[in-house]
Amino acid sequence: RVVVSICTxxxxxxxxxxxxRLKLMDGGARKRKSALRSVLVTPExxxxxxxxxxxxxxxYDTFSWSDGYLLAMLVGFSILGSxxxxxxxxxxxxxxxxxxxxxxxxxxxxxxxxxxxxERKKLEKEEKEQEEKAEKEEKERLKEEEIQENEEKTPLxxx
Length: 159
Hints:
This protein has a domain at 64-123. Helix 4 (65-83) runs antiparallel to helix 5. The protein is elongated and about 105 Å long. It is built from five helices and no strands. Helix content is 89%, strand content 0%. Residues 120-159 are annotated as: Disordered. Keywords: Membrane, Transmembrane, Transmembrane helix. The chain crosses the membrane at residues 68-86, 93-112.
């Protein structure tokens, strides 16, 4: 009796393990994962994620390398001016000339960024125009097909 009871206790457990393995192989894990994801990701969260994506894109479009260079240059010269004590007039002239030279480098970088941005906008505009043209042609083609189908369906009455 003891042996029989042990077999009956362990046997269903083995079958349960086998069923779990079959469910995992059958895509049960994916179903559980998607159910868990639907609990964690709400429609409001999706909306917020879209807004965050749009904000990041706007930041990347507005903040360029030249802006970062200008910010670093100003912070660097501010720290340098507060830490370093000028002893001779020559040091002051060198500092001012370095600042002017750094600002000229900023202007060059800014002009390159503006040229790249204008080129990017031009390409985006051309792509958008091509997409609109393709959509318009597709709509016209669908209308023509619909008209042809309607003509085929309606019988001609000759009187």
